């Protein structure tokens, strides 16, 4: 009887503890982009989500320009355009190396690459995605047939599997992953919208610290678990962005009738 009488007290204590502290324990919310990017310094390696101008972390990139951090190594599919996205960091000569798969529509990126001002590592787009995913999943390296027999494979280990040659590619090692999502809750659970999903999900959890900016930040429990693309375990900081431009890189319309 004494043992049974003690059980409700323990349950009551746990319930009080949970009600008071649980939300605080799992909250990843920060109140500003300044707080979200605290700790970013010169010479760091950053992952930045997006494809072209679609799904890029606009607020975070703008603040990196304001911070004036230099000698950055940026891992991103491409570098935006001359006056937007990562192109802003290139304009201010804040990037020393780009790891990308596509030079894209950025003339300044092309100019700096051809002049030798910018160190550029161009890799196959699928390999870029898989190196992010390998870092996300904790795999140090993987084999891929992409790039075998080309400059991509120079200096890398190669191996034959079932009569086909493969190249050993290593997972990325980044200090911060900075991504953009459509909706997120305070625990860091994320939903991406349309083609803005691109490289953002595979960069979550692929660096020491993952920072997410969202268009709409909602309370915990608001999002339907069936529609969550990335669980909060992959996110350390989340904040609500503002004033999104969402530029279109190449707008194509039908002629006016």
Element layout with pairings:
Elements: H1 2-26, H2 33-36, E1 45-48, H3 58-67, E2 72-75, H4 86-91, E3 95-100, H5 107-115, E4 119-122, H6 125-137, E5 141-144, E6 158-161, E7 164-170, E8 174-185, E9 190-191, H7 200-203, E10 207-218, E11 237-240
Parallel strand pairs: 1-2, 1-8, 2-3, 3-4, 8-10, 10-11
Antiparallel strand pairs: 5-7, 6-7, 8-9
Structure explained in plain terms:
The structure is a single chain. The protein is α/β, with parallel strands linked by helices and 257 residues long. It has a domain at 33-128 and 173-240: Glutaconate Coenzyme A-transferase, CATH 3.40.1080.10. 28% of the residues lie in helices and 25% in strands. The protein has seven helices and eleven strands. Strands 1, 2, 3, 4, 8, 9, 10 and 11 form an eight-stranded mixed sheet that branches. It is globular, with a radius of gyration of 22 Å. The N and C termini lie far apart (87 Å). The model is unreliable at 1-18 (pLDDT under 50).
Keywords:
11 strands; alpha/beta; eight-stranded mixed sheet; three-stranded antiparallel sheet; Glutaconate Coenzyme A-transferase; disordered N terminus; 257 residues
What is the CATH level 1 assignment of the domain at 33-128 and 173-240?
Alpha Beta
Task: State the secondary-structure class.
Answer: alpha/beta
The CATH level-2 architecture of the domain at 33-128 and 173-240 is identified as 3-Layer(aba) Sandwich
> Which runs of at least 5 residues are low in confidence (pLDDT < 50)?
1-18
Q: How much of the residues is beta strand, in percent?
A: 15-25%
**Amino-to-carboxy terminus distance:** 87 Å
The tally of helices reads: 7
Major sheet characteristics: 8 strands, mixed
**H/E element string?**
HHEHEHEHEHEEEEEHEE
CATH superfamily of the domain at 33-128 and 173-240: Glutaconate Coenzyme A-transferase
| Residue-averaged pLDDT | 90
* CATH-defined topology of the domain at 33-128 and 173-240: Glutaconate Coenzyme A-transferase
Q: Compute the gyration radius: what is it?
A: 22 Å
Using DSSP, what is the number of strands? 11
Helical percent range?
Answer: 25-40%
Global shape = globular
């Amino acid at each position: 009887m004494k043992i049974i009488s003690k059980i409700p007290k323990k349950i009551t204590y746990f319930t009080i503890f949970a009600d008071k502290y649980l939300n605080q324990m799992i909250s990843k919310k920060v109140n500003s982009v300044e707080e979200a990017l605290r700790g970013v310094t010169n010479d760091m390696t950053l992952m930045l989500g997006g494809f072209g101008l679609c799904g890029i972390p606009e607020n975070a990139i703008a603040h990196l320009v304001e911070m004036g951090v230099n000698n950055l190594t940026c891992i991103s599919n491409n570098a935006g355009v001359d006056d937007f996205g990562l192109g802003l960091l290139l304009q201010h000569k804040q990037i020393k190396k780009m790891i990308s798969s596509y030079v894209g529509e950025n003339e300044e990126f092309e100019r700096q690459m051809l002049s030798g001002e910018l160190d550029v590592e161009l890799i196959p787009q699928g390999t870029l995605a898989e190196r992010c995913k390998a870092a996300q999943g904790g795999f140090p390296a993987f084999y891929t047939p992409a790039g075998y027999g080309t400059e991509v494979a120079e200096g890398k280990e190669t191996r034959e599997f079932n009569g086909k040659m493969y190249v050993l590619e290593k997972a990325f090692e980044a200090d911060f992953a900075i991504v953009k999502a459509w909706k997120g809750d305070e625990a860091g659970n994320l939903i991406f919208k349309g083609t803005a999903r691109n490289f953002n999900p595979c960069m979550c959890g692929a660096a020491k610290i993952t920072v997410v900016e969202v268009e709409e930040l909602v309370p915990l429990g608001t999002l339907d678990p069936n529609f969550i693309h990335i669980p909060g375990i992959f996110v350390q900081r989340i904040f609500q962005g503002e004033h999104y431009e969402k530029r279109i890189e190449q707008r194509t319309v039908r002629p006016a009738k």
